Amino acid sequence: MILEWLFRGLEIAALAAAVYLLVGQEWRHGLVALAVVYAVTAVYILSVWSPGLAAVKLVTGWMAVAVLGAAQPAEGWRESPPPGWVGTAFHLVAAALVALLVYSVAPLMARYFPVSAPVMHGGLILAGMGLLHLGMSTRPFREVVALLTTLAGFDLLYTGVEQSILVAGVQSLITLGLALVGSYVITAPSMRTGEGQE
Amino acid sequence: MNAPLIWILFPLFFAFILWLVRWREGWVMRLGVVLCLLLALLAWLLPIGTGFRVFGNRWEIEPTLALAGRQLVVQNNDRPLLIFVYLIAAFWFGGSREARAHRFMIPYGLAVAALLLAALSVQPFLYAALLVELAVLLSIPLVAPPGKPVGTGALRYLIFQTFAMPFILLAGWALSAVEANPANTFFPLLAQIFLGVGFALWLAVFPFYAWMPLVAEEADPYPLGYLLMLLPTTFLLLGVRYINAVAWLKDLSALWEVLRLTGVVMILTAGGWAVFQRHLGRLFAYAVTIETGTSLLALSLNTPQSMETFAMLFLPRVLALALWALSASVMRSGGKGLRFEDLDRAAETFPFASAGLATAYLSLAGLPLLAGFPARFLLLEELATRAPLSAVLALAGTGGLLLSGFRVLAVLTGGYFGPREPRETPFQAILISVGVVVLILLGFLPRLLFPAMLGLVPAILMP
């Protein structure tokens, strides 16, 4: 019973963080939301993997957030033009539709896919919201964040399939690599190009 | 000694060293070329898995490296592939200074090549998806150079290639489920769908190639050419390995039909779009798409001869793409844009680069007596006997590319060669001339180098 409530709480936290990533225009809060996504993912993974591997996921996720934060992506985060309340409402309705879709297809997928129902819900929420964010965003930096959210969801789903240390390690490397790409997106225009400039 | 250590991990480490000293562009280029040539030479000289003697001492290069329960396996049959990849890298890096490629080109390019080789050699093979994703992440500075905003094309490239990874990994899960429950009919279907979508995203199959023209419009042609040559080649080889490794997949007649249909659609749509383009970069992207489609057509025939044709297609492709990328880079670094209006009568000031562009493009389009023609001719001949309609459609698509090639020629020359003030350096002119001569020579004398490419066939067919 307690576990069930815990997983409900995790689903709500994942959904709230993903929705903030979708509609939020303040980069610091956005990165906190991404950190929450990785924390939720790590707690879910605890139910499948050893605490050590879950900690690896958490630490690499938070490192990714730190890498993104170090780039100071204020401009890269804000949508231009700002969505306004109509745009935000539209984003929220779309998010609600994705959530509905997730809760509709999760039981069917759980029949074939070897993960528990709560992990399936968490994974699908993150992957679905990440995809929605990817489709709706016009800013390259936000697209990288959306990709990170989507992959966090997929990583969660994939925990039931593969529990190899190497795979977990490479997935963590990919998370960090994507964060570095996000950072590159922000810093590339101001980077110097030629020989002897440093 | 260990083969994956020599040909995968050492180049990766060396790429990191080159990255550390990336501001010394001249030295980075020289070191990169020397290392790649050395690795190709070692692959040529040293047998893998069997002992050999050096100065009286017996040595043996182990083919396998175990990593946390998985293995990297580089076998003796892989040697032609190693030679091929590292020669391409050396060839490309060698021209990077003349092409004014940015400083990330060689360190990241070397790392990408090593990671793609790792993807080709990892066992179980489905983990290749993770290594390919790492290569894609490292390739971002190649498509989005420093000093410029990262464009939509680079982002789309990242997104499409990243989405391939989950599909391929899930295909691995579905395939293992098939092995566990051979009577189940759902999992084979699921595996086919996942593999199909994953490879379609990787290979930028229609309709997933939208990012290619975009990225080709934004990126520097030289690093992009390297990437667009290396990635599809690796994915095609991975595809062949997957097919050979999964016995029931190979027996599916529908698979070959789908491959043929995909190849024809890619050639036809890309050829059709090419006719309407007014940007050399976008034309380059469509030419690459047609090349991938042609390779898929060769695979779809599934005969020993078609596999030889599949291997033969690589060499003219590499040469033509390199020549194209170098020539376009020379023009770009000389202040010319790649839009047709910027290239008006460019042959007057860039005679060699214009000749290089035109020859490379016409070779990619399969114009007779150029390097791209013999392999295409063999392919279309065989295809015509098996599926005449597919052959006609493929020919029509290639015709579109050829048509736009003549348009490029018209734009570059403007029908007039007046007094000119060349803006190419002598070394640029020499490099481009060598490329043009080799492409023409291969067209006239296909037996000169194509037999060497047949050495790749055992490496390609290896599960």
TrEMBL record, chain A:
The chain crosses the membrane at residues 6-23, 30-47, 83-106, 112-132, 167-186. Keywords: Membrane, Transmembrane, Transmembrane helix. This is Uncharacterized protein.
UniProtKB/TrEMBL annotation, chain B:
InterPro entries: CPA3_Na-H_Antiporter_D (IPR050586), ND/Mrp_TM (IPR001750). The chain crosses the membrane at residues 6-21, 28-46, 79-95, 104-120, 157-177, 189-212, 224-243, 255-276, 313-331, 352-371, 391-417, 429-449. Its main location: membrane. Residues 186-394 form the NADH:quinone oxidoreductase/Mrp antiporter transmembrane domain. Pfam families: Proton_antipo_M. The keyword Transmembrane applies. It is a multi-pass membrane protein. Keywords: Cell membrane, Membrane, Transmembrane, Transmembrane helix. GO terms for cellular component: plasma membrane. It is found in: Cell membrane; Membrane. Belongs to the CPA3 antiporters (TC 2.A.63) subunit D family. This is Hypothetical membrane protein. It comes from Anaerolinea thermophila (strain DSM 14523 / JCM 11388 / NBRC 100420 / UNI-1).
